[in-house]
Design a protein that fits this description.
Helix content is 31%, strand content 24%. The chain is of the alpha/beta class and 385 residues long. The protein has two domains: 152 residues, VC0802-like, CATH 3.30.2130; 165 residues, 3-Layer(aba) Sandwich (Rossmann fold), CATH 3.40.50. The strands form two sheets. The chain has a seven-stranded mixed β-sheet with strand order 2-3-1-4-7-6-5. A seven-stranded mixed β-sheet has the order 10-9-8-11-12-14-13, covered by helices on one side.
Amino acid sequence: MRRMELIVPCHFGMEAVLKNEIIDLGYDVTEVTDGRVTFEGDEEAICRANICLRTAERVLVKVGSFHAETYEELFQGTKSLPWEEYIPVDGKFWVAKAASIKSKLFSPSDIQSIMKKAMVERMKTVHNISWFTEDGASYPVRVFLLKDEVSVGLDTTGDSLHKRGYRKLTAKAPIAENLAAGLIKLTPWHGDRILVDPFCGSGTFPIEAAMMAANIAPGMNRHFLAEVWSHIIPKRMWYDAVDEATEEVDLQVETDIQGYDLDPNMVEIARANAKLAGVDKLIHFQQRPVSELSHPKKYGFLITNPPYGERLEDKEAMLPLYKTIWERYQQLDSWSLYLITGFEDAEKVFGRKADKNRKIYNGMMKTYFYQYMGPKPPRRPKEGQ
């Protein structure tokens, strides 16, 4: 087994949640920075991280890091990295993304171009050839520059990990699956508690919650770029990781997870997505406006992503909607409300500051995760008491 550092990007604001996920998988976290977590692992860790992490965006193998303030330093630093240990002679390689923060080098296109040239020069020297066909497997590279420190990673994932494979149809403004999972993990909810999303859209919150309750790994039913990197990761490791995840699934779990939406078409889409995810038996979807939100039981959770009027002219229309959300929430006995929104006047409409308010970046949009916490339910008596 080869020891290596793995870099895992995530949504800004989700770093602590992702760190806990990695620790729960049994790995040692070495660094946490804005938007990514680094940990030590081996080839097996690449498979398990891709298949099991709910809040990650992708898994990168750290090829190396160096300091660069000029393009010449960037070229030489990139050329010094051991690319031949990862990329075979027929591999297709390119710098898929470059991000720069507080660094002298800031042009993504220039960074990508110069690093590609440096990689080619390194491979030319090692393989003693002048031309690469690049008709083999793909090896996209991602680079982060922070205060002139360059971190270089090889992308093992391909399509972002938020693409679980179940969401074939979506709402107009869907929340990413990995962000929804992270927000649920920021709450005390667990599988035997009630969860209702009154603005479920294509069903992301209820589906992610049901997958957690049934212990279904998010990456079990999709493919990853590194599956064909057999010189780095033996194929059997991917099969073993899927088998391990499959053994943990429990579809007999009892749940009370519900999703409502005003649009009957969205309800049908949510049902179809839940079926693709294998959790349709664990969720009850229903056409229902938020004005009719109710539930007879206590100690439930509202976790939702309501409309928030991205355009200025829409803001006024949000006031009655948010007023209705608050009125219905107050009729729910001992419930908690967790709401992600870009509508900055939510607390004013509610007339009460949130118990916790977390700033989350949903893509490039700044949003707020308002958390109104209800009382804890009484402890259940242990068996025999």
